[in-house]
Amino acid sequence: MRIILIGPPGAGKGTQAALLHSELGVPHISTGVLFRQHVDGQTPLGRQAGRYLDTGDLVPDRITTEMVAQRLAEPDARQGFLLDGFPRTLPQARTLSELLAADGHRLDAAVEYTVPDEVLTERLLSRARTDDTPETIRNRQQVYRTQTAPLLRFYADILLTVDAAGPAADIAEKTLGLLRPCG
Ligand SMILES: Nc1ncnc2c1ncn2[C@@H]1O[C@H](COP(=O)(O)OP(=O)(O)O)[C@@H](O)[C@H]1O
């Protein structure tokens, strides 16, 4: 299956992806994790991306899509994937459609996780990642509303919306239930 996860920072996409990928037998590909690996490894890509991660702004589409295209070309992702944190803009979404169409593939589902705003901020502050300061969190939430939320309409035909307040295992069960007819 080829699935993308959409939701504001703190919605639990990473947690859900980790629970779902073994059930679904597809790799979990997180652009946030990939970027942080590049930054920690001080690669050329990491040097370009670092300042965006520090402020909570999106890394430019060109850099991001190049990194994702390379990752999707790896053998383990050829049969399917769970994309967490990509696409986050309409141009990224269009590029992803083109990349898949070039191989005769398309997405099976776009899963949207919804959580009340106050729960989101609480979760982010408690995970204490270095880019989780009150300012970057506010900025990432704003970026989500302006740049990523338009994807919900783009993916209207394959969108599955899951209420993501509550225990992670329950949310994963709900997600699997909704995905079953798509696979
Ligand atoms: N698809 C993307 N496009 C541009 N930048 C991205 C993308 N995915 C991740 N990033 C960068 O990585 C940072 C962390 O992303 P992520 O780990 O998904 O955290 P969160 O969901 O909490 O915002 C983002 O703030 C952004 O700078």
From TrEMBL:
Q: What sort of enzyme, by top EC class, is this?
A: transferase
Q: Where in the cell is it found?
A: Cytoplasm
Pfam short name (any one): ADK
State where it is primarily located.
cytoplasm
Report the catalytic activity: AMP + ATP = 2 ADP
Q: Which UniProt keywords are given for this protein, alphabetically ordered?
A: ATP-binding, Cytoplasm, Kinase, Nucleotide biosynthesis, Nucleotide-binding, Transferase
Which EC numbers characterise this protein's activity in its record?
2.7.4.3
The similarity annotation says: Belongs to the adenylate kinase family.
Q: What is known of its domains?
A: Consists of three domains, a large central CORE domain and two small peripheral domains, NMPbind and LID, which undergo movements during catalysis. The LID domain closes over the site of phosphoryl transfer upon ATP binding. Assembling and dissambling the active center during each catalytic cycle provides an effective means to prevent ATP hydrolysis.
UniProt-listed HAMAP family: Adenylate_kinase_Adk
On assembly, the entry states: Monomer.
Name it: Adenylate kinase
Origin organism of this chain? Streptacidiphilus alkalitolerans
Gene (UniProt): adk
